[in-house]
Design a protein that fits this description.
heterodimer; A: 145 residues; mainly alpha; 2 domains; 80% helix; disordered N terminus; disordered C terminus; B: 203 residues; Rna Polymerase Sigma Factor, Chain: A; elongated
Chain lengths: 145, 203
């Protein structure tokens, strides 16, 4: 019984509050004069046009930047492709060329090293020099100083 | 293409339908878009005032809506007499919704804005109303209404304005917002509940 009464009261409250909410929304409504004033604002369309033009410029610049980037890529592609082809050719032909060299009868002897007598130390010479013992070779080496 | 524009220019612009003006604006006829603006700026302004109290805010909504419309002209698919109005209204409502959400994120309005006098007045009014039931006589200032409504979630506010002020059906709101009818129904129920809860705080 009590519950029934309470629910009835709540329902009434809800109805009143809904109506009050409706009044609240209507209180927020603007008058026709206000709507017209905002709609007929003298520079409204001019401002819209300015913003549209600015946006169009921005979009054009963005498009231009992309086109420039693509053009750069387009220019770079042949150069990069040529370099890649040359590198690939060298990689493929390098071992073949080095294998072919002795068969062509080119002298396979080691190239003479300048001052080989001066710098050709044996391990014994190095130990002896560290120990302060003179060997015949170290004498020669010392002679170049 | 030029011939088609020339043909259109023979026709008086004021007599052209919205769809014809859109077609002309799409191919670069600036005056066609100007005419569309002239015809429908009041509609967008009225929608703006459903959600925002200040003239500068409404003007911003009008600007934003027409700029969006301009860049979306290519997507417009006409067909019937009211198509352009519905399409533009949809853009305007979404612009308002986005701005409501931005405003709430920035925290521009809060219950803290409600002065003690206003809160006391609201409380007294609501008590009187619950005793007398004479709701229609309530003298609610616009400023007070704005402060209270700003406490609602943006989607609740959107639904309430479209439902109670624009007096649109669930199906129409669904078309306007892009939400399903089930979602609109659920949100309208929640919005009314939210408004009642807000008012109860002052009882």
């Amino acid at each position: 019984m009590w519950m029934k009464g309470k629910r009835h009261n709540n329902e009434l409250d809800d109805e009143t509050l809904n109506r009050f909410g409706g009044e609240l929304l209507r209180a927020f409504e603007a008058s026709d004069a206000e709507i017209d004033t905002a709609a007929m604002s003298p520079f409204l369309y001019r401002r819209i046009r300015v913003r549209i033009e600015a946006e169009e410029r921005r979009l054009a610049e963005q498009r231009g930047a992309w086109i420039a980037l693509l053009a750069g890529v387009k220019r770079a592609v042949p150069g990069a492709a040529t370099l890649a082809a040359v590198a690939l050719a060298l990689l493929m032909l390098g071992p073949a060329l080095s294998q072919r060299s002795p068969a062509n009868g080119v002298n396979n002897e080691e190239a003479p090293t300048l001052m080989s007598d001066v710098f050709s130390f044996s391990q014994d010479d190095l130990i002896a020099s560290a120990a302060g013992v003179e060997t015949p070779q170290s004498k020669n080496a010392g002679g170049t100083r | 293409m030029k011939e088609r524009i020339a043909e259109r220019s023979i026709e008086k612009p004021a007599e052209m339908t919205d769809d014809a003006l859109v077609a002309a604006a799409r191919v670069g006829d600036e005056s066609a878009f100007t005419l569309l603006f002239e015809r429908h700026r009041r509609l967008v302004s009225r929608l703006g005032y459903r959600f925002f109290p200040r003239r500068d805010q409404v003007e911003e909504i009008v600007q934003e809506s027409f700029i969006k419309a301009y860049f979306a002209l290519g997507d417009y698919q006409g067909g019937n007499e009211k198509s352009f109005v519905s399409w533009l209204a949809r853009i305007a409502v979404r612009t308002c919704y986005d701005e409501l959400r931005r405003t709430q994120r920035r925290g521009e309005s809060s219950i803290g804005d409600l002065s003690e006098e206003e809160a006391a007045y609201l409380s007294d009014s609501l008590r009187d109303l619950s005793a007398s039931g004479n709701v229609e006589g309530a003298a609610i200032s616009r400023d007070l209404a704005n402060k209270l409504l700003a406490r609602l979630r943006p989607d609740d506010r959107l639904i309430l304005a479209l439902l109670k002020l624009e007096e649109l059906s669930i199906a129409e709101i669904s078309t306007l917002t892009g939400w399903t009818t089930a979602k609109v129904k659920m949100r309208s129920h929640r919005a009314q509940h939210g408004l009642r809860r807000l008012l109860r705080k002052f009882l």
